[in-house]
Amino acid sequence: MPTTLAPKRAPRPLTGRMVLACLFAFFGTVFAMNAVMVRVATSTFGGVETESSYKAGLTFKKDVAIAEAQDALHWKVEANLRPEGEATRVTVNARDAESRALTGLDVQVRLSHPTDQRRDVILKPTETAPGVFEATMPVPHGQWDIVLDLKRKDETVFRSKSRVTI
Length: 166
What we know:
By secondary structure, this protein is α+β, with helices and mostly antiparallel strands. Helices cover about 30% and strands about 35% of the residues. Strands 1-2-6-5 form a 4-stranded antiparallel beta sheet, with no helix packed on it. Strand 5 and strand 6 form a beta hairpin. The longest helix is centred in the N-terminal third of the chain and has 29 residues, at about 15-45. The chain is elongated, with a radius of gyration of 30 Å.
């Protein structure tokens, strides 16, 4: 039984052009994937904790003194979040050390998204009763940092930051 074998092809010689083409293809793929990953990373993470770590470090002692002065007041400030349909109601109850209502304050509530600053929500509650401030706004479900600022005139007299889940 005779067998017919197909003639063997001669192997392609490895030329300088082939090596150059392989190098361009390899590094082109690496650069293209790096470009895609950089684009995805910069377009999905918009938040930073501080704009300048250096400046934050310079004001650290001042921030500690402000926190100690705030602790010395012994104020009791509570924030409650309740879902109301598609919206969320934020109620802030502010009392001094003797449990008297704190009135005449300008309250700002910021719901700060932990990873995306573009999703932050700022609420401006109004005083509905002495020491009780309320606001309602649609807020997406998830984890948020709730930052409470109580101000008199332009001076922040109380600041609190807590992690909440809505």
